[in-house]
Amino acid sequence: MSDTSDRQTRFLAFLVPLRSELEAYARRMLWEPQDAADALQNAVLRAFAAFDRYREDASFRGWMYRILTNEIFTLNRKHSRRARFEFQLAPEELAALAGAADSDGATAWAEALDDRLGTALHSLPENERTVLVLRGVSGLAYHDIAVALEMPLGSVMGYLSRARQKMRAALADTEFDRRKQTP
Length: 183
Fold this sequence. Notes:
By secondary structure, this protein is mostly helical. It has 2 domains: 1-88 and 99-112, Rna Polymerase Sigma Factor, Chain: A (Orthogonal Bundle), CATH 1.10.1740; 113-183, Orthogonal Bundle (Arc Repressor Mutant, subunit A). It is 74% helix and 0% strand.
């Protein structure tokens, strides 16, 4: 009994300081931000079930991000399969619906980004978007991202570089459009 209690205490000691950043990461990475709580809960359950395989010399943060990222990819693939059978809305229509339906802060991440930036972020390939968010929002080091995503360090750097270039281009296009509209 005390072994289970010790395991729970150790696991929670590692997890609690990361909770808010994991929640923010899940909201930013999921196609349906309302799934963030489910993704996080599933990831925590999987992590706890596998906690006996966690090595003390490894980064718990990176390990937890890997588990959460896998859960996010699974949910996004599920959403992608469903989306083939649903009608599509323009970004401005989607933003209007999200704003109207937001009574509990579920679309707080969408409010933090303007529509075009959010659209540009979601248009990135999954690996580029994941690396960009892990580095830019979660502040993970390149090595930790490589561990979390189980990919070579060079791939992390390449994905990040391409993602940044695409986001810069999206921002430049947005600025160009704003200047065109201003008399």
